[in-house]
Amino acid sequence: MPVNVLIVSHLFPPNPGIGARRWAKFAKYLTKKNFQVHVLTADHAGKSGSVWTNDVKNISIEKLPFNFPEIIAYPKPGVVNKMKYFLKLEYLKSKDKGNFYDKTIFWKSQLEEKIQALIKQNNIKCVIVTAGPFRLANYVIGLKKKFPEVKFIVDFRDLWTNDSEITAFSKMSEARKNYERQLEKETLELADKVICVADNMKTYFGGLTSAQKITVIPNGFDTDDFSDVIGSRPAESDGKIKFVFTGTLYINLEYILEPFFRALGKLKAQNKNLFGFLNFEFIGTFPDAYKQLITKYNISESITISKSLPLKEVYKHINESDYCMLFLNNVYNFALSTKFCEYISQRKKIIVVSSKGQAQEFIVNKNIGFWINPDNAYEDLKSLIEKTISGNVSKWNSDFNVEEFSLNNLTDKLINLIEQ
Predict the structure, then answer these.
(1) 415 is a domain residue
(2) Which of 187, 217, 247 is the last residue of a domain?
(3) What per-residue confidence (pLDDT) applies to 164?
(4) The pLDDT of residue 230
């Protein structure tokens, strides 16, 4: 008999958010491996068009009302909308003791009622909640008290209370931070099992609860996503060294990006011949503030910026590159992200631009890429170009087993956790 599993994910296809990808893929592969998967998600009004919709087309999905002010979740330009945003934000601050930006702060009652009904109706044996949003995890895991016979697992895709750069959490009052820390600890203690995506996160969460209940299941790649690319030949070389970045360049990355772009400007000024070999392609979200850095250092002829492309097109561009790029801030410089998985699935060496960290060490130690240190960017970049021109350093290291990151294999690891 198939095991009945309930996945609670605030984002899920057809919502297009990247936060939906991880558990859409696990839902797909759990179904393939004879699990009966049910999903509970939010009804994101007007938000649809996920590239992973086909992955979950045969899965039972139920939606709950969004219940969070859309003007906050999806801000709009204009004076009137800015006023609405301000007034609604003040309302949220008055209604919640913790992170008032958490999109699930008004979800508790409807969520608990629906999960209890789904557990009883479908004989659910395991409930998995993925966070963020993080309040969601606390609400779901709290039901362990009512259903002690059901296994409750919480999956952390990101950090909850110690992300000091990307989220607004770090700017909140100490009282609000402490409230969230209390919820975080409570959630970890109640959960039967805790999943996170990196060893660094395991160490952190292990300091708040029993380390034995924590398992690392990293992000992964799905071979089905690039079946059209497998066996295809890259386009004819034009003599350029092609670097590709896909996805979103996040806020607060200036201290990583500016030294890199400055190094490109210096290379252009001091060695036009080497600079002429370079072709950087950014596909996805590229904030205007970072475009200003390209102008500042006069390097626009080496850089192409494209808006988001269909997934198959993204894989085609990866396939035609020499190197693929990661830019990591200091909080997440341990992260082997979805981008990392997409890159290695195509056996492409990675250029990681970051401060020293676990991701950089993994990539260098496994000989699957190179590190550009922002403090030594010019020398690192110049050395990389010279080595690439004179040899085969961009050639993939065939000793590295990419199957460690295939979703098919990662799902087997998840199943072991469910069945323990």
Answers:
(1) no
(2) 217
(3) 66
(4) 62
Sheet containing 193-196: order of strands: 60-65, 36-43, 4-8, 126-131, 151-156, 193-196, 214-216
- The helix/strand/coil state of 359 is helix
How many Cβ atoms sit within 10 Å of the Cβ of residue 168? 10
The answer to the question of residue 57 being in a domain is: yes
Note whether 188 and 284 are same-domain residues. Answer: no
Least confident of 96-100, 235-239, 382-386: 235-239
Q: How much is the average pLDDT of 393-410?
A: 94
Residue 354 dihedral angles phi and psi, to the nearest 5°: -170, 170
Amino acid identity of residue 40, one-letter, is L
Instruction: Based on the fold, state whether residues 274 and 140 are members of the same structural domain.
Output: no
pLDDT digits (tens, 9 = 90+) for 343-354: 999 999 999 999
Residue 26, Cβ density class (10 Å: 0-12 exposed, 13-18 middle, ≥19 buried) = buried
Task: Judge whether 416 lies within some domain.
Answer: no
Instruction: List the domain range (segments joined by +) for residue 389.
Output: 224-404
350 and 331 in contact (C-beta within 8 Å)? no
Instruction: Give the mean pLDDT of 202-209.
Output: 93
Q: Are residues 236 and 127 in the same domain?
A: no
Is 194 domain-assigned?
yes
- Cis amide bond preceding 259, omega within 30: no
3-state secondary structure of 52: coil
| pLDDT at site 318 | 94
Q: How confident is the model at residue 171 (pLDDT cuts 50, 70, 90)?
A: confident
Check: CB of residue 351 under 8 Å from CB of residue 323.
yes
* Domain termination site, one of 198, 217, 236: 217
Give kind and range of the element (H or E) at residue 81: helix 79-95
* CATH number of the domain where residue 331 is located: 3.40.50.2000
Contact indicator for 21, 29 with CB cutoff of 8 Å: no
- 196 and 53, same domain (yes or no): yes
For the chain, what is the domain count?
2
